[in-house]
Design goal:
The chain is an alpha+beta fold and about 170 residues long.
């Protein structure tokens, strides 16, 4: 008799602790099941279920705030470069810090990027690095703190340029 009781107790313990059997045993609504399942988010494989079931709303994780603050790190690189256009050199030759929004190995790609930036209200110009890359600059400063604030402002107003950085003229 003892031989039968021990396996029976083990089975009860196993099935009693199983999540599937606990859900089946409870009288819960579909909404409660969805809200309790933290692994289900819109865009996952389970999202089709939510679109088919009109009584259940989608569960999404809130987006993190991406608003940068003044203590945010701004990368600064130092290199020698030349201006692509003489008028840009005349206007910015005495500046030390340049706000860079893009770097390209081919000039035609940098020109396309400049057109996009112009349509967004920037006044971009090209710097040619010592390695031959075409850096798209949108602003230049003599004071590093002002340049950093400009990068942070661009990152805030234009999230697609979250990788904006500063170029320091050697």
């Amino acid at each position: 008799m003892r031989l039968l009781i021990l396996p029976l107790i083990a089975c009860i313990f196993l099935f009693g602790s199983c999540k599937i059997f606990k859900k089946a045993g409870k009288n819960t609504t579909a909404q409660e099941n969805v809200n309790s399942d933290a692994g289900v988010v819109a865009g996952s494989d389970n999202a089709n279920y939510f679109s088919e079931n009109k009584n259940v709303s989608k569960v999404t994780k809130p987006a993190k705030a991406t608003r940068p603050n003044s203590s945010e790190k701004v990368s600064v690189r130092s290199e020698q470069f030349s201006f692509d256009q003489e008028q840009d050199q005349a206007a910015n030759a005495n500046k030390k810090f340049f706000v860079i929004l893009g770097s390209f190995s081919q000039k035609e790609n940098s020109e396309k990027a400049k057109d996009i930036l112009k349509s967004q209200g920037f006044k971009p110009y090209t710097l040619v690095s010592e390695t031959g890359n075409f850096r798209i600059c949108v602003d230049a400063f003599n004071v590093e703190a002002q340049a950093r604030e400009r990068v942070i402002k661009i990152r805030t107003d234009f999230p697609q340029y979250v990788d904006a950085w500063l170029l320091y003229k050697k």
